[in-house]
Q: What sequence folds into this?
């Protein structure tokens, strides 16, 4: 189950990064979509509610089995950054900083899941 959860979490975190990279481009090309910024925030919360339990479960299952502290640290740091950025985000940081912090958090989370997945592949699970 842990390998499947890692793959899902990597895909979802990657989706966050793609979303953060494409949103400014789309808003510049199609200014009328600025009104859709509430949809943008709803998407952030939707992704976070899926990523959070998936990642926590995969990371803790991997940690129980492999005891790799760096994997757990990367994953939890990335998750923490995503949660804090979602809570404080735009109002405290501004749009560009919010997107940058989200991408950094997503990258840390992705690397944590990749390490988790690699440990599982070495163990042939």
A:
């Amino acid at each position: 189950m842990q390998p499947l959860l890692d793959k899902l979490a990597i895909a979802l975190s990657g989706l966050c990064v793609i979303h953060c990279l494409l949103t400014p481009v789309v808003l510049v090309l199609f200014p009328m979509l600025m009104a859709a910024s509430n949809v943008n925030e709803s998407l952030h919360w939707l992704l976070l509610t899926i990523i959070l339990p998936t990642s926590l479960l995969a990371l803790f299952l991997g940690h129980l089995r492999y005891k790799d502290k760096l994997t757990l640290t990367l994953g939890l740091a990335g998750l923490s950054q995503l949660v804090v950025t979602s809570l404080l985000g735009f109002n405290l940081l501004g749009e560009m900083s919010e997107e940058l912090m989200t991408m950094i958090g997503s990258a840390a989370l992705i690397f944590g899941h990749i390490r988790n997945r690699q440990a599982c592949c070495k163990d042939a699970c």
Summary: The chain has four helices and no strands.
